[in-house]
């Protein structure tokens, strides 16, 4: 049984909105947590401005444990925790929680990688001028790494569009849910094609925004 | 005044200990342009970083203006660092900030009011000759211009001391002499004490008043630049000096001279005013001996003349010996004996 497109469009619009909310909310929460963790990872490294073996090794270990787990497994594995925090395991909000966790660990690595590429001499110069570690974080590390960081976050947000679709298949809302229930379970090829096209457009737009922003920041 | 008192720095790299600085005692007087020269790995870069405690000494004391900097709290140390400008081989400018933004950075750290910052930035840009580059970003500048920004940034907080980490090593010879002139101007106009490290004797020769030679973490020779240049005590020092001034003809020419039956060669050194006197012609004429200058130069060092001549004498052996003895009472003379170098 195929859908009646004259009445089905509002459902597609609604689902697109849910996907956008999942991705944007995850990006915001994940970025906050991820940037903090990434900065911590970087500054607590050996010979860095706030060297701390315990913090570094602990963070490094947690990230390495969580990151290799496939998202769909992770989603199911922490469903009890999701229920505890969000109150349910079904719907948009329930998808945002596991997505945020995964995203923040990924972003932590992205942030760390971008910070490592900053010339240590620049940090040394700031230290020599009498800048405190906190000051160096906000006035040297973040501004110096911002351009590539935006590109990294763009990469993550494209992955999140993918994750939102995965979450949709197991109870999250959004385009993934629509594609799964109508396109896959009811064999409606037209729904499948439309949702895929929308996902492609979303990815293109995200990439374009990221490229434009980072180009502005890096002045290239 | 910067005083190193029996300062050592040991790095632990895995199970290995690297003694980067060994028991260095050194005094840099106010107003000096003090150069530390050494080959790479001699420990000079570590020694320089001990001044503003980018590296902490393993033992010993570092006093600046009588204060032991190793005993300062983190906050006091940050304040102290604002009094020590630093410039780098690779400039280390903030790429995310404009030229003006780079120079303003230390002023912001010091909590300088905005209007005062913009006044000071303009003044510093003028001083380093980059008034038209305020809005440019570092990646739009040449190496020499970047180092000028580095110098302006280091001077922004009105420091008493400027430390320079191989500041000209990444620059071409023309730009190097521009930057050296600028450093000299910094020293003369603001009375800022400069401590620099380099592996180029050229740098020491052209701007330093005092020099220390480092090897394997130790200071092996130190003194006024004129004295060290004209009377080096150590083989390494001689090697550095030879990199900027050849004091002997090349071995090939010397061999040719010997093979052609040329007589003994003598090296005469004239330091300071004696270089203006006709010592050689007066003494040889008196003893009826003739002389031949085979090789040599008279150059200016630290605004004093320094002559280095390689001479042979011809005439009665007794008279020649007498002439040499008399010259020896007036200035340094020694026979040239080739050694394998």
TrEMBL record, chain A:
Signal peptide: none
Highest taxon, organism lineage: Bacteria
Domain ABC transmembrane type-1, residue spans: 16-210
Keyword Hydrolase: no
Principal location listed in the UniProt entry: membrane
Gene3D superfamilies: MetI-like
Location within or outside the cell: Cell membrane
Keywords for the protein's UniProt record, in alphabetical order: Cell membrane, Membrane, Transmembrane, Transmembrane helix, Transport
GO biological process: D-methionine transmembrane transport
InterPro entries the UniProt entry points to: AA_ABC_Transporter_Permease, MetI-like, MetI-like_sf
Transmembrane segments: 20-43, 55-78, 84-108, 145-170, 190-210
Gene Ontology CC: plasma membrane
Membrane topology, from the record: Multi-pass membrane protein
PROSITE patterns given in the database record: ABC_TM1 (PS50928)
CDD domains with a match to the protein in the record: TM_PBP2 (cd06261)
Record family assignment: Belongs to the binding-protein-dependent transport system permease family. CysTW subfamily.
Protein name: D-methionine transport system permease protein
Automatic annotation (TrEMBL), chain B:
Any single biological process term in GO: amino acid transport
Entry keyword Manganese: no
Annotated CDD domains: ABC_MetN_methionine_transporter (cd03258)
MF-aspect GO terms: ATP binding; ATP hydrolysis activity
Record InterPro entries: AAA+_ATPase (IPR003593), ABC_transporter-like_ATP-bd (IPR003439), ABC_transporter-like_CS (IPR017871), ACT-like_dom_sf (IPR045865), MetN_ABC (IPR041701), MetN_ABC_transporter-like (IPR050086), NIL_domain (IPR018449), P-loop_NTPase (IPR027417)
UniProt entry keywords in alphabetical sequence: Amino-acid transport, ATP-binding, Cell membrane, Membrane, Nucleotide-binding, Translocase, Transport
Record's keyword annotation contains GTP-binding: no
Segments forming domain ABC transporter: 2-241
Gene Ontology CC terms, in alphabetical order: plasma membrane
Membership in a protein family: Belongs to the ABC transporter superfamily.
Official protein name in the record: D-methionine transport system ATP-binding protein
Origin species: Edaphobacillus lindanitolerans
């Amino acid at each position: 049984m195929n859908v009646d497109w004259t009445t089905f469009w509002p459902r597609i619009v609604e689902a697109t909105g849910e996907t956008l909310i999942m991705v944007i909310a995850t990006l915001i929460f994940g970025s906050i947590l991820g940037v903090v963790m990434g900065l911590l990872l970087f500054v607590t490294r050996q010979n860095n401005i706030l060297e701390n073996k315990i913090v570094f090794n602990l963070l490094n270990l947690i990230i390495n444990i969580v990151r290799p787990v496939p998202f769909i497994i992770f989603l199911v594995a922490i469903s009890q925790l999701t229920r505890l925090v969000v109150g349910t395991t079904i719907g948009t909000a329930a998808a945002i929680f596991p997505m945020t966790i995964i995203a923040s660990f990924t972003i932590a690595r992205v942030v760390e990688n971008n910070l490592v590429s900053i010339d240590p001499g620049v940090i040394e110069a700031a230290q020599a001028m009498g800048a405190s570690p906190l000051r160096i974080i906000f006035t040297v590390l973040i501004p110096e790494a911002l351009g590539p960081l935006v590109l990294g976050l763009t990469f993550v947000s494209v992955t999140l569009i993918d994750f939102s679709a995965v979450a949709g298949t197991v109870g999250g809302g959004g385009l993934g849910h629509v594609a799964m229930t109508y396109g896959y379970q009811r064999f409606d090829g037209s729904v499948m094609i439309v949702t895929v096209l929308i996902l492609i457009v979303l990815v293109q737009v995200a990439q374009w925004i990221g490229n434009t922003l980072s180009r502005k920041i890096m002045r290239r | 005044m910067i005083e190193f008192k029996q300062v050592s720095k040991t790095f632990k790299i895995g199970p290995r200990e690297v003694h980067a600085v060994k028991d260095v005692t050194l005094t840099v007087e106010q107003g000096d342009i003090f150069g530390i020269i050494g080959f790479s790995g001699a420990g000079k870069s570590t020694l320089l970083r001990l001044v503003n405690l980018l590296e902490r000494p393993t033992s010993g004391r570092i006093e600046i203006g009588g204060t032991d900097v190793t005993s300062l709290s983190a906050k006091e140390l940050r304040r102290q660092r604002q009094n020590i400008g630093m410039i780098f081989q690779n400039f280390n400018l903030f790429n995310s900030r404009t030229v003006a933004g780079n120079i303003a950075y230390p002023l912001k750290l010091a909590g300088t009011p905005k209007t005062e910052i913009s006044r000071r930035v303009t003044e510093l840009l003028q001083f380093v000759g980059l008034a038209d580059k305020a809005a440019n970003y570092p990646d739009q500048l040449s190496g020499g211009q970047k180092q000028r920004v580095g110098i302006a940034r280091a001077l922004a907080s009105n420091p008493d001391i400027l430390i320079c980490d191989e500041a000209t090593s990444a620059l071409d010879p023309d730009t190097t002499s521009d930057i050296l002139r600028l450093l000299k101007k910094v020293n003369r106009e603001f009375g800022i004490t400069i401590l620099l490290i380099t592996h180029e004797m050229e740098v020491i020769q052209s701007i330093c008043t005092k020099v220390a030679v480092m090897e394997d973490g130790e200071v092996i020779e130190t003194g006024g630049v004129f004295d060290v240049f004209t009377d080096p005590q150590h083989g390494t020092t001689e090697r550095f000096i030879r990199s900027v001034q050849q004091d002997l003809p090349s071995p090939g020419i010397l061999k040719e001279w010997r093979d052609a039956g040329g007589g003994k060669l003598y090296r005469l050194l004239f330091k300071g005013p004696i270089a203006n006197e006709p010592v050689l012609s007066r003494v040889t004429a008196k003893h009826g001996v003739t002389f031949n200058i085979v090789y040599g130069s008279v150059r200016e060092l630290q605004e004093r003349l320094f002559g280095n001549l390689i001479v042979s004498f011809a005439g009665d052996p007794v008279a020649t010996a007498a002439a040499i003895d008399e010259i020896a009472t007036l200035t340094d003379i020694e026979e040239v004996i080739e050694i394998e170098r």
